[in-house]
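Contributing new records

If you add data, match the layout below exactly. Sequence lines come first and carry their own label; structure lines follow with theirs. Keep one chain per record. Anything else will be rejected by the validation script.
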Amino acid sequence: LEKLVKSNVIFYKIAFEIKEKILGSLFHEEDLDGIKYLKVDKTTHTCIDIGANVGQTIEYLKTRFKKVYAFEPNIQNYNYLKKKYKRNNKIAVFNYALGEKKEKKNLFIPYWKNFICLHNTASFFKDECYSTLKEFLNIDRSSLSFKKTIVNVEKLDKFNFNNVSLIKIDAEGSEKSILIGMKKYLKSSNLSLLIENS
């Protein structure tokens, strides 16, 4: 079934929509399972999800932390998350990209043959979008086009979140600049990082 879904963009898009709308939090990325080995007090500890996408990680984190602060620069995904969690005061969603300084940058959102938005990824780097999609989808570079949107970038150090014990970063090639912009948080001896490295 997985091979069939990955063989065709249309099959993949349908499967992705079914998973999100019907199955919801049933699935998460396997690397999150390591979080269960951290000493987390879910009555006091909070976490930060950088690159929240459509909430796959939020669904896992919301039962293990008192509060989840989620950052998602793609406005389509952000609007989806705001609607999804509007009644959940444990989740705060911010429409920013994070980096090493305050600025505006072009975010590239990939489309297949100019009509199917592959919204599970977006990046400041077109090549990063392609390599990410190629990991799980049989797709040719020539079939991709990109829509460009301008997003606001902030340093994580601008935000004063308390009792942060975990920061997850999945930022499609921007990991280093995010780390440079969060020096205040990196000084904490109680902080764990989960980074999907590009």
